[in-house]
Amino acid sequence: MKINAHVLKMSCAGCAANVQNTLRQQKGVINADVNFASKTAAIEYDASLTNPQELQRTVSEAGYELITDSEDDEEESRERLSQIEGKLYKSLKIRTFTALSLAAVLVLLSMTALRNQPWTGYASFALATLVLFGCGSPFFADAFVQARHGRMNMNTLVSVSTTTAYLFSIFTLFRPQFWTSRGLEAGLYFETAGVLIAFILTGKLLEERAKRKTSASVGKLLGLQPKTAAVLLPDGSTVEKPVRAIDVQETVLVRAGEKIPLDGVLIEGHSFVDESMISGEPIAVEKQPGQPVFAGTINQQGSFWFRVTKRSAETLLSQIARLVEDAQNSKAPIQRTVDRISSIFVPSVVGIAVLAAALWLVFGGQNAVVHAFLAFVATLIIACPCALGLATPTAIMVGMGKAASKGVLIKDMDALEMLKKTDCVILDKTGTLTEGKPYISDYKWITAETEDLRNALFTIETASQHPLAKAITSVLPDAVLQSNLKVENIPGRGICGKIGNTAYCAGNRQMFTSAANLAEVSEWLENQENGGSTTVLFGTENQVMAVFAVSDALKTGAKQAVENLQKSGIEVVMATGDNEAAARNIARQSGINQVKANLLPEDKLLLIKQKQGEGKTVAMVGDGVNDSVALACADVGIAMGRGSDIAIETASVTLISGDLGKLGDAISISRGTVGTIRQNLFWAFIYNVVGIPVAAGALYPVCGFLLNPMIAGAAMAFSSVSVVLNSLRFKK
Fold first, then answer.
1. Hey, is 136 helix, strand or coil?
2. Are 572 and 427 in contact (CB under 8 A)?
3. Please, are residues 394 and 723 in contact by the beta-carbon 8 Å criterion?
4. pLDDT tens-digit profile of 582-604?
5. Is position 428 annotated as part of the catalytic site?
């Protein structure tokens, strides 16, 4: 089983690593990946050995909360999760503003003339206690749970550093003579502890606000689906029903300006529907009886009735949302390295802080104790690993969401990263470069045209998924489907079916190499092919009975899409099973110089391997069953959204509208996302590489500078927020 669960109470990348390790150690869990930015866990497990309830219990014992849901109540669970997160966010906001108010008073008491009053120290003690163990209580509670399990995270750093400042100040407040008798100043650092908590809470609040924006794409998609719809009753009246309660085959009314609630087929009425939220195309699509409509799209004119074909959880909109969510939860290869670093980061920082304090105590001279204390606290605070944990996932969430809004579905981060490296694109012809709406431009019966033959051809082509089959059935309007048909698809050649005792085939010339009368029709076939048409033959193994010339127009924008790819330095090749003349005709119109025609599926596979052998990163674009092997073997498989289910399932990228121009958008988004990840990681690493030595006191021997822990807290908060804001900048 595979599930996506939500994880609450994580505060940093170390928390994500802890939850991930806890899940992976659970008996029956095959794999688990936890995403700190989206607060999700993708879990694969053996249902005979464990279950969601057991996983929840295990994660709860580790100090976190796991929310798992079945697909049946997906919408309800999302609403419940939204409510929980809303309450947590509200609590964080209250604690943050309370801490800021109390910390402001602490600063006033410690940095003005009030600091000399005899009661100031006791008032500061009381205020700091409220800030630490009131506003900052979740930090200490989680740090205690982690310590109990022998682990550390960001809350460990916050708790140890602020507790050190707090206890140091309490000791000094009640035993000042311990320091004064040794000629040292009896300084209080209550304001340091209080301001640190206030700054860290402020950083978390800003971080949460920004993260909510990066993960908004799935919520926006699902928000497009209305909650209720008008359903037709048997007596002819309508009733408003919740969308999730509407079943397949029910009839639903959609008025002008309303959103379509579910997927279905229009049965009465006529309209234009805005499908831009699915396809990324701004032009409204005309809808007539018999045509499909999709949940979340907007009816622009008139009202119509449609019959429901998919329930709420099964609509195209829900599938897109799940794919986007899965993609956002996937990890880039570089993120796995970051996760390993994060898992050892906190213990390493604690070790550096202890070492820095020890060195100050030994070599610090007269103020050794104070400097050791400041270096210890500042090092712990400035080294929070949040920026590292947010660098990759926030960029992925923005990139995947942006791609979805453009009508591009990318299944995982591996595909997104490979898209950036793509330098060779292999394009199928029919349905990829052409409209995929072929029509019969000419046809000829070689033998006498009989009702039985027409019925046989109609039955075989109706069973085929090839785009050319529909064109042929369109010229057989009065033909009748035959029963007891057994068909066999022969990839790259055509389809065969046995009706009664006779086996009939429909396909290209390679299907009829043993036909006795093939030479008789060769001239007609060549004339049609030279004119740019694709030819289809029908007959038995030994005899051609009919021939058809099929034409298909080049897609609008295909030439521009090819030109844009070539301008960006990408090699473009057409690979098709169609004849040489038809292939070259489309290649000439679209501006493609390299053409490979008459290819079987295995030939396309060999072409891909040849290009990969030349050092190319190959993207294969196709839409048919015969493209599925090539799509699977390419570095990036790209399916056209209106292609076959197996092609879409096999590919790692889907262009929903079937617009080839979206491939350029996908590559551009890939480059932008990977670039943003690298920027984020650079600043996160540089911040720690520079910040930790400065906090430990490396600059003191040079220029006398020692970092104030309060400044370290502000810098730590800024580092996390800056990484998220940089990801959001790419969104704009």
1. coil
2. yes
3. yes
4. 888 889 999 999 999 888 778 88
5. yes
d(Cα 396, Cα 680) in Å, to the nearest integer? 11
Domain check: are 430 and 470 in the same one? no
Instruction: Report which residue type is found at 318.
Output: S
Range of the domain at 501: 439-551
First-last CA distance in the chain: 37
Q: Are residues 310 and 452 in the same domain?
A: no
Q: Of 69, 428, 627, 659, which is the active-site residue?
A: 428
In one-letter notation, the amino acid at residue 43 is I
- Tokens 């707090």 belong to 166
The domain spanning residue 591 has which CATH number? 3.40.50.1000
271 and 310 both lie in a single domain = yes
What H or E segment, with its residue span, contains residue 657? none
Domain boundary among 21, 55, 73: 73
User: Do both 546 and 443 map to the same domain?
Assistant: yes
Are residues 543 and 445 both part of a single domain?
yes
359: Cβ contacts below 8 Å, ≥ 6 apart? none
- 191/128 Cα distance (integer angstroms): 7
Measured between alpha carbons, how far is 421 from 102 in angstroms, rounded to an integer?
Answer: 52
- Count of CB atoms within 10 A of residue 316's CB? 18
Residues 6+ apart with CB under 8 A from 11: 138, 139, 142, 153, 154, 155, 204, 386
With beta carbons less than 8 A apart as the criterion, state whether 77 and 84 touch: no
Same domain assignment for residues 427 and 568: yes
pTM of the model: 0.62
Q: Could you tell me if residue 633 is inside a domain?
A: yes
Residues 522 and 616 in one domain: no
pLDDT in tens, 656-702: 877 888 898 899 999 998 899 889 888 878 877 888 888 888 888 88
The answer to whether residue 192 is domain-embedded is no
Q: Is 615 exposed, middle or buried (0-12, 13-18, 19+ CB in 10 A)?
A: exposed
Question: Residue 383 is encoded by which pair of tokens?
Answer: 């080294």
Tell me which of 290, 314, 338 is where a domain ends.
Answer: 314
